[in-house]
Automatic annotation (TrEMBL), chains A, B:
GO molecular function per UniProt: L-glutamate N-acetyltransferase activity, acting on acetyl-L-ornithine as donor
Associated pathway: Amino-acid biosynthesis; L-arginine biosynthesis; N(2)-acetyl-L-ornithine from L-glutamate: step 1/4; Amino-acid biosynthesis; L-arginine biosynthesis; L-ornithine and N-acetyl-L-glutamate from L-glutamate and N(2)-acetyl-L-ornithine (cyclic): step 1/1
SUPFAM superfamilies given in the database record: DmpA/ArgJ-like
Binding site for substrate: 146, 169, 180, 260, 379, 384
Main location group: cytoplasm
Site location (Cleavage): 179-180
Active site annotation, chain numbering: 180 (nucleophile)
One Pfam family cited in the UniProt record for this chain: ArgJ
UniProt xrefs under NCBIfam families: ArgJ, PRK05388.1
Protein name (record): Arginine biosynthesis bifunctional protein ArgJ
Subcellular location: Cytoplasm
Reactions that this protein is recorded to catalyse: L-glutamate + acetyl-CoA = N-acetyl-L-glutamate + CoA + H(+); N(2)-acetyl-L-ornithine + L-glutamate = N-acetyl-L-glutamate + L-ornithine
Similarity remark: Belongs to the ArgJ family.
Length: 384, 384
């Protein structure tokens, strides 16, 4: 279901031959209306891929009729020819669906610095356009996978009659700046582009933006939210934001759970920070400590590595007034050893790190993963 | 030789029983004068270890008679008791050498969050004081090793009659903020504390501060420079700075070459930056990309990961005006693929990444390592 859970949407996922594996690698999602409002959030990486440069122009007027996504190549750092490939892909979609190319978002994911095969893309678009269906959401979710091991989908249905759903791909280069990876969200609620934009930014800020699996920000991150209005229901603003945020959070958790090579899903909860920003900065610093992440892989509750990472930030705290608990065991109280580290059980996949800064009353949780042999293996052999 | 290469210094390295391996774990370096001027640079991590808190007080007057260093425990986040252990260690040295405890620097390295055994430290200080010799520099260098596989020493002798030498330990948590790891430098040149301080800061800024092996800043980093004046020669200021910087650079390169689990030594040279700071920021961003580092481990010239990391910085550059060369092969010119990546040979241990920002005429080189299975293994099992 996912992107086709809401009424007013059709999708397809086909094998265009971009992936050497022969698996599905091109997805198409069409908004059949009656509305075609949309909002997007893109990577804040300054080295943006060609499909991001294209889509930034498309979203200018808040109107999107379709979105085409490919795996098998990022189309990033491919110069003018790469941009032409993106443009031509949008034109192919426009021609097949009878819409304007300027209303077609394009997303790509895969290796940076290699040209995509336009002939394969064009043929794939033609096949996908013919396969569009309200039942093919799963095919689309499969087509955007790279090193993901499973498709990622989420849906929320509101009792008043509208639905919001979505699909995502993640796996590596998983540290979004303002968006993450490729995510397509759809709703049949009646909403304008401005309202969608505000809701999407509010939702991504506390979901995808709090995911930092490997500290590496992508050049292609795109989150798109399309509204068809097909339910005929204008939703309560708060209810819509809540549902949208729920879908984003569920997708973010699926991204975390399927991150490259990970053997632990780590939630770093920072409490009693002076500001929410401080809490995010501290949580992110810990999430980017390779030493901390390797220790968790080894089931080693090495809390000194947590504090060493906290100490690199400029957040408000007294370095000798911090408490740390790991999976419920308070191993450090006010900068001194508390419970013995041997009491901590790190064998479950889920790990909870609680950092109490004693500096205020704001909180934030960053989701990350451990650093494993499989991560190193997968990322030392990805391009070959 | 190392710390005893310059005249006016004695050293010792003994096994105090702090390391479970039974190897040397306590080093003592004594300045026999006639001068006892000194300068230090400490970690900028806000979570500072007790020996750093102590040594910051000691250096206040620029007078240091001796420095005692232990491996087998960082004495960090060990509270008031940990600080008392540091203080008592300095007192033990003072008593044995007939100097003031307030002139004794203390350094510790090892696991964070565990108390050191004061009785072992005191007995070790007594043994080391009895073993002090102008020939025992190597023993001292061995005693400060943790996961280092070999001691690190460097010496420069000036024709005018003075010498500067030093020892270092590194291995992990190797991303200094203003200093790195434990480094003791000695000279018999006639210099006052103020001149030493200026020379030391100038030298560390372009050597240890440009080393970023694993992105993790230590809580215990200390670089100390002691001057005995025993040569009787007041050096030319520029010549002294040059020699000191050379010694620091050689030690930094030894730290890089022996970094935990590394199989490649990577020099990231950023040229034509608008400012030196921009060059450092860009080089450091690349040095902290796990994806880039894992690719180098896999001998994969994945230059897209270089640019993806560059794009996360706020340095001055046109994202589509950057060139990248790897080991002499220009794989990217102005944001487009140039030479085929297959031409790049990454089998040698030394790797050179050249990033041309085309934004000015400043340059900087960051030294880092690849991300390997051995790094993950070593750091998932360190505490156990």
């Amino acid at each position: 279901m996912s992107v086709t859970a809401a009424s007013g949407f059709e999708a397809a996922g086909v094998a265009a031959g971009l992936k050497s594996s022969g698996k599905r690698d091109l997805a198409l999602v069409r908004n059949t209306g009656p509305l075609n409002a949309a909002a997007t959030v893109f990577t804040t990486n300054r080295c943006k891929a060609n499909p991001v440069l294209w889509s930034e122009q498309v979203i200018g007027d808040g109107v999107v009729s379709a979105i085409v996504l490919n795996s098998g190549g990022a189309n990033c750092y491919t110069g003018a020819r790469g941009f032409q490939t993106t443009h031509a892909t949008a034109e192919a979609v426009a021609e097949k669906l009878g819409v304007s190319a300027g209303d077609v978002l394009v997303c790509s994911t895969g290796l940076i610095g290699e040209q995509l095969d336009l002939a394969k893309l064009t043929a794939g678009v033609e096949e996908a356009a013919g396969a569009l269906s309200a039942d093919a959401g799963l095919h689309a979710a499969e087509a955007i996978m790279t090193t993901d091991t499973r498709p990622k989908e989420a849906v929320r249905r509101d009792p008043s009659g509208w639905t919001v759903g979505g699909m995502a791909k993640g796996a590596g280069m998983l540290a979004p700046g303002l968006a993450t990876m490729l995510v397509v969200l759809t709703t049949d609620a009646v909403l304008d582009a401005e309202t969608l934009d505000a809701a999407l930014r509010a939702a991504t800020r506390v979901t995808f933006d709090r995911l930092d699996s490997d500290g590496c920000m992508s050049t292609n991150d795109t989150v798109a939210l399309l509204a068809s209005g097909a339910s005929g229901v204008a939703p309560d603003d708060a209810a819509f934001r809540l549902a949208l945020t729920d879908v984003c959070r569920e997708l973010a958790e699926q991204l975390q759970a399927d991150a490259e090579g990970a053997s632990h899903d780590i939630a770093i909860e920072v409490v009693n920070a002076r500001s929410e920003e401080d809490a995010v900065v501290v949580g992110r610093a810990v999430s980017r400590s390779n030493l901390f992440k390797a220790a968790i892989f080894g089931n080693d509750p090495n809390w000194g590595r947590v504090l060493a990472a906290v100490g690199t930030t400029d957040a408000a705290f007294d370095p000798y007034g911090i408490d740390v608990a790991i999976n419920g065991v308070q191993v450090c109280t006010k900068g001194e050893p508390d419970q013995p580290r041997d009491l901590v059980d790190l064998t479950p996949r889920a790990v909870h790190i609680l950092i109490d800064l004693h500096a205020g009353d704001e909180t934030a949780t960053i989701l990350t993963n451990d650093l494993t042999h499989d991560y190193v293996h997968e990322n030392s052999a990805y391009a070959s």
